[in-house]
């Protein structure tokens, strides 16, 4: 909804780093002159300026990430040298009698804390999202009031927004297309065939955006639904982590970000609630419907054409920013050679829509679908309905996420996961039958 936001945040990071480094440099200068008395700003005090110490501390503690930061944001390098020098001078008294491992560790710890403090006090612009729930709801209510004023007589056959708490929808026309990828397509997977015609003989509505944190919060507030407290994240290894959920997926999210750490069961619970509250037939999309709406009439490898680098205009994937600034490396990110402006997830609608006017059909977060997993299109339905095969403990997902390179952002790319599994790159989008 605010395209330049990510770029601005990234710029804010770089400016913030320089500014914080200047502040910290001043503090260090004071420390160095402390023999002349006057206030001394200890590293601990600087650290208290931080916003998300865990995230930034982890980022700084990771030697590889630190090296990337120094290379990417050269402004901080002189200050790191300054910290090193002053830390060593401060530690001179400790060196009497020789520096043993314990003393060296103290010095190293001081250096680490100082570096983390610089980053923590400067990355505010990137990671700090104050609780925006009330502001988000107020904005939604105002926008819905405007929508209702423009559509004063809701007709259940054409109305596309049921209320401020609920997702905005876009009507998609009936049509047909060829599902799957040609054998010659780069990075094609065997499960993307056999190609076959799918005829969707009905128009239906699709969420303009993926379901957001704010929308999911309205559901949880109404139902007290428990979406768990464990989610697969990549924080020093991809593994299930306690204390992680749709509110805290391992990185900071505002109300306009796509909800992640969703299992298929969570997505189903949401659409069941949405249908009950609105009286309308909401549901997840089928896999055939998803490829249809993501392609939006295109026949190319990507919904925007055949150029993978053009992904950065349409899809928030693993880009150069993710590669440079993502604090954890275990995902083995192979980045696209462009900048989409977002290290992790992005507020929905930040990038360009597809030809149906849908945003984030590719990248940002994978979307859970209603199909049971089918490792081939043999026996797949051709009328837009979901595959209801034997393997319903696994369900299909589409679209790719902020962790993925272009091979995963192709229109035909498929994925599956176990129904109850929550990962911090899996979310969903809803459809409505008319
Ligand atoms: Ca990205």
Explain this structure.
This protein has 434 residues and is of the alpha+beta class. The protein folds into 2 domains: 7-124, no CATH class; 133-433, paralog of FGE (formylglycine-generating enzyme) (Alpha-Beta Complex), CATH 3.90.1580.10. Helices cover 36% and strands 12% of the residues. The protein has 13 helices and 12 strands. It has helices spanning 5-32, 43-47, 53-61, 63-72, 77-90, 101-122, 124-127, 133-150, 213-223, 264-278, 287-295, 311-314, 320-325, and strands at residues 169-172, 175-179, 196-200, 204-207, 230-234, 238-242, 281-284, 366-372, 394-398, 415-418, 426-427, 430-433. It has a 4-stranded antiparallel sheet with strand order 1-4-12-7. It has a 4-stranded mixed sheet with strand order 10-9-8-11. Strands 2-3 form a two-stranded antiparallel sheet. Helix 1 (5-32) runs parallel beside helix 5, helix 1 (5-32) crosses helix 6 (101-122) and helix 5 (77-90) packs antiparallel against helix 6 (101-122). It starts with a helix and ends with a strand. The relative contact order is 0.14. Bound molecules: calcium ion. Calcium ion binds next to helix 13.
Keywords:
alpha+beta; 13 helices; paralog of FGE (formylglycine-generating enzyme); 4-stranded mixed β-sheet; 434 residues; 2 domains; globular; disordered N terminus; binds calcium ion; 4-stranded antiparallel β-sheet; 36% helix
Provide mean pLDDT, rounded: 81
The CATH homologous superfamily of the largest domain is named paralog of FGE (formylglycine-generating enzyme)
Work out the helicity level.
Answer: 25-40%
Shape: globular
Q: How is the main sheet built?
A: 4 strands, antiparallel
CATH class of the largest domain: Alpha Beta
Strand ordering within the main sheet: 1-4-12-7
CATH topology value of the largest domain? paralog of FGE (formylglycine-generating enzyme)
Q: Enumerate how many helices there are, as a single number.
A: 13
The helix-and-strand class reads alpha+beta
Amino-to-carboxy terminus distance? 27 Å
Radius of gyration equals 25 Å
Using the 3D structure, state the CATH architecture of the largest domain: Alpha-Beta Complex
Number of domains: 2
Percent strand: 5-15%
The helix/strand series, from N terminus to C terminus, equals: HHHHHHHHEEEEHEEHEHHHEEEEE
Uncertain runs: 1-53, 120-128
Number of strands: 12
């Amino acid at each position: 909804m605010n395209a330049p936001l990510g770029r601005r945040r990234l710029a804010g990071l770089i400016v913030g780093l320089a500014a914080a480094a200047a502040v910290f440099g001043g503090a260090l200068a004071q420390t160095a002159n402390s023999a002349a008395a006057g206030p001394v700003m200890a590293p601990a005090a600087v650290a208290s300026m931080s916003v998300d110490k865990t995230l930034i501390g982890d980022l700084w503690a990771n030697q590889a990430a630190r090296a990337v930061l120094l290379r990417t944001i050269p402004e901080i390098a002189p200050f790191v040298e300054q910290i090193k020098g002053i830390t060593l001078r401060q530690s001179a008294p400790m060196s009497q009698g020789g520096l043993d491992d314990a003393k060296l560790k103290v010095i190293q710890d001081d250096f680490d804390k100082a570096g983390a403090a610089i980053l923590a006090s400067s990355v505010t612009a990137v990671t700090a999202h104050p609780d925006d729930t009330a502001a988000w709801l107020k904005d939604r209510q105002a926008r819905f009031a405007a929508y209702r004023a423009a559509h004063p007589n809701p007709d259940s056959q054409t109305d596309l927004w049921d209320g401020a708490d609920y997702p905005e929808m876009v009507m998609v026309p009936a049509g047909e297309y060829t599902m799957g990828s040609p054998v010659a397509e780069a990075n094609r997977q065997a499960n993307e065939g056999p190609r076959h015609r799918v005829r969707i003989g009905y128009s239906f509505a699709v969420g303009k955006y993926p379901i957001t944190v704010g929308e999911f919060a309205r559901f949880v507030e109404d139902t007290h639904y428990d979406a768990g407290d464990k989610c697969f994240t990549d924080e020093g290894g991809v593994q299930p982590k306690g204390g992680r959920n749709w509110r805290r997926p391992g990185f900071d999210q505002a109300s306009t970000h796509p909800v992640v750490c969703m299992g298929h069961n969570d997505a189903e619970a949401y659409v069941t609630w949405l249908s009950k509250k609105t009286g309308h037939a909401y549901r997840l999309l089928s896999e055939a419907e998803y490829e249809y709406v993501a392609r939006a009439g295109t026949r190319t490898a990507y919904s925007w054409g055949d150029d993978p680098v053009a992904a950065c205009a349409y899809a928030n994937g693993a880009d150069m920013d993710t590669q440079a600034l993502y604090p954890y490396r275990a995902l083995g990110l192979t980045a696209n050679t462009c900048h989409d402006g977002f290290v992790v997830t992005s507020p929905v609608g930040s990038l360009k829509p597809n030809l149906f006017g849908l945003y984030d059909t590719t990248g940002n977060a994978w979307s859970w679908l209603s199909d049971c997993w089918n490792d081939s299109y043999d026996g797949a339905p051709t009328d837009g309905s979901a595959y209801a095969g034997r393997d319903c403990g696994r369900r299909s997902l589409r679209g790719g996420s902020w962790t993925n390179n272009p091979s995963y952002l192709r229109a035909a790319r498929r994925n599956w996961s176990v129904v109850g599994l929550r990962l911090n790159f899996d979310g969903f989008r809803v459809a409505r039958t008319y």
